[in-house]
Every structure is written in C-alpha cells, then in structure tokens.
Amino acid sequence: MNNKAITCKDLTKRFGDFFAVNHISFEVEQGEIFGFLGANGAGKTTAMRMLCGLSYPTSGEATVAGFNVFGQQEEIKKNIGYMSQKFSLYESLTVRENIRFYGGVYGLSDKQLKEKGDELIEKLGMQQEAKMMVGSLPLGWKQKLAFSVAIIHQPRIVFLDEPTGGVDPVTRRQFWDLIYDAAERGITVFVTTHYMDEAEYCNRISIMVDGRIDALDTPANLRRQFGANSMNEVFYALARSAKRSAD
C-alpha cells in the first residue's frame, strides 16, 4: 500500500469540451493538513468528489489511502471521513443519537459506540447538551460535532469542504484546534476554505485556478515567491495573472 495519503497524477474531469479539473498532480503526506484553495468554479469540489470515490475521473491517476480512484471506490469510502459545507447531521435527532447513527454507519460495535460517544461528548464539553436535538444547537457547536463524528472511526483521511463557513472567528479558531488534534493523531486533513487566514494554518496549500493547480507550497514559501505579506495577496496575484492570460 502506498505510504502517501493521497497521490494524483494528471487527474482530469472533463464535461464535453470543458475541463472542470485539468491534469492536476500533487501528493499529500499522512498526517498533513493540506489546504485546497480556489475561487468558486475553480474545480475544488469536483476534484474532492473524485478523491472521495463519488465521481469517476475522465483520465489520469490517483490513490486515496492506498486505493485506486478508478476501481476501489468502496475501499476509499471505508477509509475516509467527510464533512460537507452544508450541515450534515440530523437536526431532529439528539447529539447522542447522531453519534450512534453515524458511528454505526462507519461500522463501530455497540461497545465502541458507547466508549467513543462518551469520549466525544466529554471532549466537546457537551455533557449538558447530549440529549438535546441537534437543530437547537448554535451553528458553531453543530460544526464541531459534525467534524468529530466524521472522524469517530479514526479514518486515515478526512475531507472537509468549507467546514467553517458562517461561523464566528472565535469558533473558527476552536474548530482548527480540533483539526490540529486530529492531525497529531495521524489523520490526514484535506480542507477547502475561502478564508485566506485559514490557509496559514495548513502545512501546505494548493491554489486552483480554472481547473488547474497554479501554486502549491507552504504558506511561507508562497508568500516569499510572490513577494506577498499575506495569502490574500498571493491569491489575488494568481487571479490577476490568470485574467491577463485569458485576455
């Protein structure tokens, strides 16, 4: 089995003459926090769907947790966690019921569900809310719960699609503490975000423009390469360059 968490070589998704993902190549190390950035329509979600085993590539090569995206999609799904941009838990179930339901989907035994459920609730400080309907919780609490449930089965990789959208800065920082903790436990974190300050929290980031990866390195190296003081400046420099090329 490949010791890289993710490998991609010329991965492509084409719809007719339109390249949603245009020959992207990169690798992600196990335990790395890898940021996947780009404007709306850049191809981030399409690429993530292929890596999660939800969509077949048109061409190229890729492995996720050592499994091939062409023929081993079900194995990929067993070895990853996923948290979508839209809230993914059941609001009409309690906190504990959601934990039991998703833990069961991930194949945990009754004993594991009890142990991990108690551990998760204590870690999140939600002992008083364990029997509350999820729909009644603040958005930030929902997001932290959704992330914790996505990794309850200790997957090799967790995919996070805009996980902190709409939450306040303090809650975003708390959410990233959970991400750091997961990475320290060896879980690879593949995260899309449009918050440029969050790009600074990643070990490395890639920036997609029109289906291509136009930049990939550590935040510090990218700032140095573009003579920028922030990732916002790097992002806008790439956007201006892409616009000039299109013109």
UniProtKB/TrEMBL annotation:
Gene3D superfamilies (alphabetical): P-loop containing nucleotide triphosphate hydrolases
InterPro entries: AAA+_ATPase, ABC_transporter-like_ATP-bd, P-loop_NTPase
Pfam family, one: ABC_tran
Alphabetical list of PROSITE patterns matching this protein: ABC_TRANSPORTER_2 (PS50893)
Domain ABC transporter: 6-235
MF terms (GO), sorted A to Z: ATP binding; ATP hydrolysis activity
Alphabetic keyword roster: ATP-binding, Nucleotide-binding
The organism's place on the tree of life at top rank: Bacteria
Record carries keyword Transmembrane: no
PANTHER family: ABC TRANSPORTER G FAMILY MEMBER 20 ISOFORM X1 (PTHR43038:SF3), ATP-BINDING CASSETTE, SUB-FAMILY H, MEMBER 1 (PTHR43038)
Official protein name in the record: ABC transporter related
